């Protein structure tokens, strides 16, 4: 008997022979497309520009717009994109009208290569042709990003229509193999689950299933009546578990339990795919009815690697292409060995993977009519033909839809076809030998490829450091990698969060003392902290400090300063690192406290804890860079070293909206730089403040170095700001309070030693501009999140959406349903996006602003239903807003969005910049020239292009604004610690009678007091 490998080689060679009989280029469309793809494969930069251009093109309306974009993407001489494009651009300049149309036509042609038809009628013609070639079909509806429930419902309805149409048109079609046809209905639909529910949250599979199942029932019922097959496609990893659970749950229901014509996709590039497949097979066996699995490698490799790197998650996909190939073969075996319960479809264009499935099926004695090969429309035509000739079942995956919603599908196909790693490119564009292509992938897996390619992020940080101060260059730990976010895609994370919520709830009502000079201090007054979702619930109490406690805290901090300021920076840095470790250990508990105390949704709460940890770790590293004195200039005979001293006693006053992160960020910066600290949390989040104090105590902060005072800002805050013994004030909060502090700190009090330094971060009235060529799926999704995420209570939140006239209607008709689809509720439930506002005062103030809005502008949308208890404000949108109206100028700090219509980008920038604030700002556009312009001109401390304007990450997006948003400091930035320090230069003449040592070291140890004798 021949070995499986030689069986594979023999079959593979046969496929190649059959392919050679009908030679065809990689891309069936010759000319324009062929040349563009050839250029793309040669030049990665060109490929990047081309795919971006292709992405924007369908949304451009006029020829002149098309030509402008063409120039912006390709005209840069430095790109050297070749005479082909150069000639195109020259021609376009001369005859824009013709060029625009020709380009659109060509790119539509490119899309037509992969999209089987614009609508169901259109696609039938294609399906008929394939039927003549003995190729079956599965049809997928393009339209991937749904931002609202009406869009999702429309999508479900379109599926039903498609099903009816296909069933009608194909009613007399028979199975091409005429054998085992009961396993393979002629009509086969591929459904994208994420397109059926706009509010799918990985943290909340139960909610997703509760919404998705009823949407699927009519489709499944009808499919069953019509004898059709329904397949659940698999999308990004975030949706994988929900899709699997949904599949199992729907097809275990009595109505569908005995229906065999349901299938799902398994992606072999996922490390956990084998476990998923085993679980499915077990489920299928218990269910007692066959089901089907389409095995693919997976279409989102670039996205998954990027996303996991951005969030610090374990990457769910293999890093080496041959690992995916090996796993595909492992799963092929698993499927075929369980053929009695699962029908296999192999979705691959890779002849090795295909030949392996063929060989293994033979080895296991499975008839070739009992499984099928599936390939994508417009790709690998000769392979399909070869498989048919060999007597295999072949089905083509046919996407149907318009070009615009089909763009992300098209870009995925272009990426796949031009990928360095891909089989099709190797075979058809690079003519790699059959022997090479049929090699056992297990032999190609490198033993050292287990980690991701070099960290791009880290490299950027390093480069940036290299450009800045010399002392950073050789500092240890130049590279900062952020702490990972919790990934709520995993059941384990969901369970941990649920149990933390239960545990914290059990501890409701606990009392927390002040901490002064290392002692726990109780006072006569206890302040309750209320759950804003359920104001009858008291999360806990904290002792309330008055003026005597404030005085005591200043004394304690002052007394501790001498020793702490002389503690080596390494020790101080380690304190922060220990605090971060404790936060990691208590992570879910801290998040749960935030959910109850300030109404944060799960992922926002986790993001806050992650940020607090990042502040500790990042500032610890920065301090190690700054701590050692650095030589100012290399001159013989003299040494001058630049270094820093702490300022003294720091007063930290933090807001409630990032209850642990901001408090921790300011306090840890002050501590690591050698200042002693009085930490005052906001009155609304005293439990979070008390937790942070506990964490630092456990980490070993010496008595008096960090003091915890909870109390009224107007009483103790004001007293301490004016105190002669407070040297530094780090404040984040409202403009009103910030300006008072700024002013009052400028007054020198009797006995005051030095000028007070104020770090002041205040609010924003943040704007986002949507350009005429913006990707509206993204613009709407991100705008909604930026405006309504955490109820609009982030200082970075979107408050003014500026729409170009040209775009206005198109955006509004999707924006309002998107807002109406949001899940508003108690954030204790996973997946809630809009919870309560912080307290009754905020509730009343925001409602007042809504009344102002009603009198000034047009109420375009307001949610009708919100929970009956708690401080819930319905998401609200005003249109017809003018720049001088109060709702366009004043910070509301709630889920209220003003929409302003402008003529063009000039006016948009004027409006965006026309406020007192400059905190965050955003722009959605796909015009490189406009993007550059906005980057240069938008007045904001943090400018975000084509993404949300909230969610700054320490080290990556140093955060803070100017104008009335702040004094120009950047939390989480490499120069932040400098604000907590006083610079000093120490110069020593090292010449002795004309003799000087030759070498002066660039750095030296700290200037520390000699140890006491
Ligand atoms: C009929 C059909 C239906 C499909 N349905 C789905 C679906 O529902 N969901 C889905 O996600 N995809 C789906 N796909 C897309 C499919 O995932 C890709 O077309 C497929 O991965 C290409 O694999 P290949 O075997 O044809 O080619 P090959 O060239 O052998 O493999 C390319 C694949 O290898 C993987 N890969 C690339 N680089 C690396 C690397 N460095 N490390 C590890 N792995 C790497 C990627 O998955 C990439 O797509 C479907 C494909 C077909 C044919």
Any overview of this molecule?
With 1013 residues, this protein is α/β, with parallel strands linked by helices. It is built from 35 helices and 30 strands. The chain has an eight-stranded parallel β-barrel with strand order 1-2-3-4-5-6-7-8, surrounded by seven helices. Strands 23-24-25-22-21-27-28 form a seven-stranded mixed beta sheet, with helices on both faces. α15 links the parallel β7 (372-376) and β8 (393-400). The longest helix has 26 residues, at 602-627. It is globular and about 100 Å long. The N and C termini lie far apart (87 Å). The model is unreliable at 454-478 (pLDDT under 50). The structure holds flavin-adenine dinucleotide. The site of flavin-adenine dinucleotide has 32 residues, from β4, β5, α13 and β7.
């Amino acid at each position: 008997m021949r070995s499986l490998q030689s069986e594979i080689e023999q079959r593979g060679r046969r496929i190649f022979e059959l392919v050679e009989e009908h030679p065809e280029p990689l891309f069936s469309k010759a000319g324009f497309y062929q040349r563009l793809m050839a250029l793309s494969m040669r030049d990665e930069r060109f490929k990047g520009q081309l795919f971006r251009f292709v992405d924007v093109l369908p949304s451009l309306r006029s020829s002149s717009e098309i030509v402008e974009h063409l120039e912006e993407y390709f005209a840069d001489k430095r790109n050297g994109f070749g005479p082909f494009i150069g000639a195109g651009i020259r021609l376009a300049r001369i005859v824009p009208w013709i060029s625009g149309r020709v380009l659109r036509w060509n790119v539509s042609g490119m899309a037509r290569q992969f999209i089987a038809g614009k609508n169901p009628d259109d696609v039938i013609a294609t399906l008929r042709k394939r039927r003549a070639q003995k190729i079956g079909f599965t049809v997928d509806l393009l339209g991937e990003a749904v931002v609202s429930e009406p869009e999702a419902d429309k999508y479900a309805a379109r599926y039903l229509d498609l099903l009816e149409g296909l069933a009608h048109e194909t009613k007399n079609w028979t199975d091409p193999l005429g054998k085992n046809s009961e396993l393979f209905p002629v009509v086969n639909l591929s459904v994208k689950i994420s397109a059926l529910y706009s509010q799918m949250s990985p943290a909340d599979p139960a909610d997703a299933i509760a919404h998705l199942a009823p949407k699927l029932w009519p489709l499944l019922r009808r499919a069953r009546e019509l004898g059709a097959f329904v397949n659940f496609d698999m999308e990004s990893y975030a949706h994988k578990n929900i899709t699997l659970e949904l599949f199992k749950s729907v097809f275990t229901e009595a109505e569908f339990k005995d229906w065999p014509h349901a299938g799902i996709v398994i992606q072999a590039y996922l490390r956990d795919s084998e476990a998923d497949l085993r679980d499915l097979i077990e489920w299928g066996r218990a269910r007692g009815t066959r089901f089907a699995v389409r095995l693919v490698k997976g279409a989102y490799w670039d996205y998954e690697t990027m996303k996991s790197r951005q969030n610090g998650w374990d990457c769910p996909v293999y890093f080496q292409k041959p690992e995916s190939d090996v796993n595909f073969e492992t799963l092929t075996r698993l499927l075929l060995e369980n053929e009695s319960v699962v029908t296999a479809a192999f979705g691959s264009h890779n002849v090795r993977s295909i030949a392996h499935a063929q060989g293994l099926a033979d080895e296991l004695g499975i008839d070739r009519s009992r499984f099928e090969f599936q390939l994508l429309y417009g790709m690998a035509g000769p392979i399909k033909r070869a498989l048919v000739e060999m007597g295999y079942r072949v089905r083509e995956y046919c996407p149907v839809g318009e070009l615009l919603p089909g763009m992300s599908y098209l870009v995925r196909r272009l990426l796949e076809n031009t990928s360095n790693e891909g089989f099709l490119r190797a075979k058809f564009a690079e003519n790699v030998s059959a022997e090479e292509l049929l090699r056992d992938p297990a032999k190609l897996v490198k033993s050292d490829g287990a980690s991701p390619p070099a960290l791009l992020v880290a490299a950027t940080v390093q480069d940036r450091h290299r450009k800045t101060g010399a002392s950073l260059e050789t500092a240890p730990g130049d590279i900062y990698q952020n702490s990972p976010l919790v990934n709520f895609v995993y059941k384990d994370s969901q369970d941990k969060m649920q149990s933390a919520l239960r545990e914290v709830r059990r501890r409701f009502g606990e009392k927390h003392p002040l901490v002064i000079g290392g002692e726990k201090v109780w006072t006569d007054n206890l302040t309750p902290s209320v759950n804003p979702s359920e104001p009858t619930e008291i999360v806990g109490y904290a002792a309330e400090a008055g003026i005597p406690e404030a005085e005591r805290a200043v004394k304690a901090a002052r007394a501790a300063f001498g020793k702490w300021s002389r503690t080596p920076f390494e020790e101080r840095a380690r304190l922060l690192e220990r605090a971060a470790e404790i936060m990691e250990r208590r992570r879910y508990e801290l998040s749960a406290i935030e959910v109850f105390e300030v109404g944060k949704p799960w992922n926002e709460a986790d993001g806050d804890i992650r940020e607090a940890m990042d502040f500790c770790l990042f500032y610890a590293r920065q301090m190690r860079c700054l701590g050692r004195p650095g030589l100012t200039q290399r001159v013989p005979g003299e040494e001058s070293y630049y270094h820093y001293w702490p300022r003294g006693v720091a007063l930290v006053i933090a807001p409630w909206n990032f209850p642990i992160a901001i408090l921790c960020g300011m306090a840890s910066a002050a501590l690591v730089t050698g200042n002693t600290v009085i930490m005052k949390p906001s009155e609304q989040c005293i439990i979070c403040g008390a937790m942070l104090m506990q964490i630092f105590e456990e980490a070993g902060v010496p008595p008096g170095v960090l003091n915890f005072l909870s109390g009224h800002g107007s009483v103790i805050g004001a007293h301490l700001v004016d105190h002669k013994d407070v040297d530094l004030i780090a404040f984040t909060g409202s403009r009103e309070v910030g300006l008072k502090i700024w002013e009052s700190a400028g007054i020198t009090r009797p006995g005051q030693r030095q000028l007070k330094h104020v770090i002041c971060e205040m609010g924003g009235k943040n704007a986002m501009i949507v350009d005429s060529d913006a990707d509206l799926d993204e613009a709407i999704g991100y705008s909604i999140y930026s405006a309504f995420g955490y109820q609009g209570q982030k200082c970075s939140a979107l408050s003014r959406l500026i729409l170009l006239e040209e775009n206005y209607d198109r955006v509004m008709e999707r924006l309002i349903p998107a807002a109406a689809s949001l899940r508003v509720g108690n954030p204790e439930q996973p997946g809630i996006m809009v919870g309560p506002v912080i307290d009754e005062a905020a509730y009343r103030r925001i409602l007042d602003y809504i009344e102002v809005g009603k009198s000034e502008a047009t109420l375009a949308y307001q949610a009708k239903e919100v929970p009956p208890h708690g401080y819930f404000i319905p998401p609200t949108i005003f249109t017809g807003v003018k720049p001088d109206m109060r709702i366009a100028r004043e910070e509301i700090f709630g889920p209220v969005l003003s929409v302003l219509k402008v003529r063009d980008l000039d006016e948009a920038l004027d409006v965006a910049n026309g406020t007192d604030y400059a905190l965050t700002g955003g722009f959605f556009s796909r015009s490189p020239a406009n993007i550059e312009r906005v980057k240069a001109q938008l007045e904001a401390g943090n400018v975000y292009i084509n993404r949300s304007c909230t969610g700054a990450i320490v080290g990556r997006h140093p955060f803070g604004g100017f104008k009335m948003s702040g004094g120009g400091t950047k939390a989480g930035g490499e120069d932040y610690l400098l604000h907590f320090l006083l610079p000093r230069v120490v110069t020593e003449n090292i010449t002795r009678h004309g003799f000087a040592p030759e070498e002066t070291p660039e750095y030296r140890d700290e200037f520390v007091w000699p140890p006491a004798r």
